[in-house]
Specification:
Strand order of the largest sheet of chain A: 1-2
Radius of gyration of chain A: 19 Å
CATH architecture of the largest domain in chain B: Sandwich
Largest interface: A-B, 59 and 60 residues
Helix content of chain A: over 70%
Structural class of chain B: alpha+beta
CATH class of the largest domain in chain B: Mainly Beta
Distance between the termini of chain B: 106 Å
Oligomer: heterodimer
Radius of gyration of chain B: 26 Å
Number of domains of chain B: 2
Strand content of chain A: 5-15%
Chain lengths: 308, 259
């Protein structure tokens, strides 16, 4: 069953796209991440032009993170104060990311930058998550209590001014590092077509010492707003948001996210982090392998779409 | 006969000349070509996955006796809207395969189909191919770039693999010695815009008739509306998609609440 995508300008198998939406939605519901780091490369693999994929995935992530935000909000696991401070940096970062995206697209090095950012980021985050969760699993096998929060330990950024008390997260930190994290996540999100949940959640857990569940809830809250902003900015700046593609992904995504969330609750937190680490690392390895092995076709042809 | 009269006649002739040119151009050929296309507008709607265009043409030749018709050679070239292609070659830098050298191909058809009854190389001398731009490489690339083998050939190869460049040397079927048919494939990924169809008829290595017609590939209905909104009402379009995401997310949140 094929449907024509009016902006990507090609017919695609609608069931394949819908299935992708469900599969990625399942993973995103299970781990509390947007799933853009999986969705964008998969769409490119299916044949969607990278510029359309990167610009259309954010709206899908906005929809599924809104569903997630609603359910976490009911359980009071969203720190809206922390979320808003993150958002102030996140929106600036998103705008900067969309701008750099169109700059790189003109320079012809967009693919390389996206691929390299994927490899560097995903392999670092993947390795960190795997080693941390193995340590946590090892501790639990030996019967020790998991030690995630160490009250009294202070990092250098605790000395910065503009301190706020974020009640739900039970932290008292300066707004400066929080805004910086938001900026970084927003920037990379817009540039790479990802929500950045897999970056933000570890940052909140390990750097800011926010409880895991609140990290996930707040990350979903932030993802919702940065992705709505990314959708609008991509539409204005790059004109490559495909509404038919986005809508199909959205419907699949919210359905998949529900069963994924249930599956996620059945597994222990360390195991979940271990699995997510493996997944993130696998995507990095896949992209890395592509860059390292000699391609069958050395040449690529693009059309400089002056008038589209 | 004064000099003035001669100059007046000359002026009139000069003024009439532009009117005469098309007439002269038409009569320069020995034969007349009548073509008919299955459609002049390819409409892209939501179920569009590609289509094909059928061209019928008849060669009318009053000079040659009907029982001894000439052997004709046909070359049909279909060109999509012009674009600029950039061909990039990957090279290994610091162990990574990255885009390195590139060549620009301005004014190249975004879609190209060349169909003939036999290889255009067999039509006659090579000048025939270069002059009338017959065959894929002559039709796609300007003569100045043909020497640049590697990048030009890569462009043809990649576009052929994508189905946007198409070459078939036995795609023109003669129903009678003077009536022929050809089918032009329009893939689902075909770019939108005006397409030009050039039909050349050769007899014994000499151009006997030529005709140019055009078709248009356009999005229609919902697809046209979406494409136009994305292009012209960018902010509203972006807000619309964002609102759609908001509605889908909220609805899903409500629907799955009971579970």
């Amino acid at each position: 069953m094929s449907i024509y995508l009016p902006i990507a300008e090609l017919p695609v198998n609608i069931l394949l796209i819908f299935g992708l939406g469900i599969a990625v939605g399942f993973i995103s519901g299970m781990f509390g991440v947007g799933g853009g780091f999986l969705m964008t490369p998969m769409l490119i693999l299916v044949g969607i032009p990278p510029s359309v994929a990167v610009a259309s995935v954010p709206s899908h992530m906005a929809a599924s993170s809104l569903t997630g935000t609603i359910s976490y909000w009911r359980k009071q696991l969203v720190d809206s104060g922390l979320g808003l401070v993150l958002l102030s940096g996140g929106l600036l970062g998103t705008a900067a990311g969309v701008w750099v995206f169109s700059l790189l697209r003109r320079a012809g090095q967009l693919d390389l930058v996206i691929n390299l950012s994927y490899i560097v980021l995903l392999s670092i985050v993947g390795t960190l998550m795997i080693t941390e969760s193995i340590r946590a699993l090892w501790r639990s096998i030996q019967g020790q209590q998991p030690v995630l929060r160490r009250p009294g330990t202070h990092s250098w950024f605790h000395g910065l001014p503009l301190k706020f008390r974020f009640r739900q997260s039970r932290i008292y930190v300066s707004a400066i590092p929080v805004t910086a994290i938001g900026f970084g996540v927003g920037f990379l999100g817009a540039l790479m077509g990802i929500g950045g949940g897999f970056l933000l959640i570890p940052a909140l857990i390990y750097l800011m010492r926010v409880p895991t569940a609140v990290s996930v809830g707040t990350s979903l809250f932030l993802t919702l707003f940065t992705m709505l902003a990314a959708t609008i900015l991509h539409a204005v700046e790059n004109r490559s948001v495909d509404v038919v593609l986005a809508f199909t992904l959205m419907i699949g995504g919210v359905i998949g996210a529900q069963s994924g969330a249930r599956a996620g609750q059945a597994i222990r937190a360390e195991q979940l982090r271990f699995l997510l680490g493996i997944l993130v690392f696998a995507v990095a390895a896949r992209v890395g392998l592509d860059l390292l092995t000699k391609p069958i076709e050395l040449f690529s042809v693009i059309s400089t779409e002056a008038a589209r | 006969m004064t000099l003035r009269r001669i100059s007046a006649a000359f002026t009139v002739a000069l003024m009439l000349a532009p009117l005469l040119v098309p007439f002269l151009a038409q009569t320069a050929y020995a034969e007349r070509l009548v073509t008919s296309l299955s459609t002049h507008r390819v409409l892209i709607s939501s179920n569009f996955t590609g289509t094909s265009l059928v061209l019928f043409a008849s060669i009318e030749d009053v000079d040659t006796p009907r029982d001894k018709p000439k052997k004709y050679d046909i070359a049909i070239t279909v060109r999509g809207p012009a674009t600029t292609f950039v061909t990039r070659r990957k090279e290994r830098i610091l162990g990574l395969w990255v885009n390195y050298e590139s060549r620009r191909y301005p004014d190249t058809p975004s879609y190209l189909a060349v169909l003939s009854n036999r290889s255009p190389a067999e039509f006659g001398p090579l000048e025939l191919q270069t002059k009338y731009r017959l065959g894929l490489s002559f039709a796609a690339l300007p003569p100045s770039i043909l020497a640049d083998e590697e990048f030009g050939n890569a462009l043809l190869r990649v576009k052929k693999a994508e189905g946007l460049f198409y070459e078939e040397t036995n795609a023109v079927t003669f129903l009678t010695p003077t009536l022929f048919r050809a089918t032009v494939p329009i893939p689902g990924t075909a770019p939108t815009g005006p397409y030009e169809i050039d039909v050349h008829v050769f007899a014994n290595g000499v151009l006997a008739a030529q005709q140019t017609t055009a078709i248009e590939v356009v999005k229609t209905g919902f697809e046209a509306f979406v494409a136009q909104s994305a292009r012209e009402a960018r902010l509203d379009y972006g807000l619309g998609v964002a609102f759609l995401a908001f509605v889908v997310g909220t609805l899903a949140g409500l629907v799955f609440r009971r579970n």
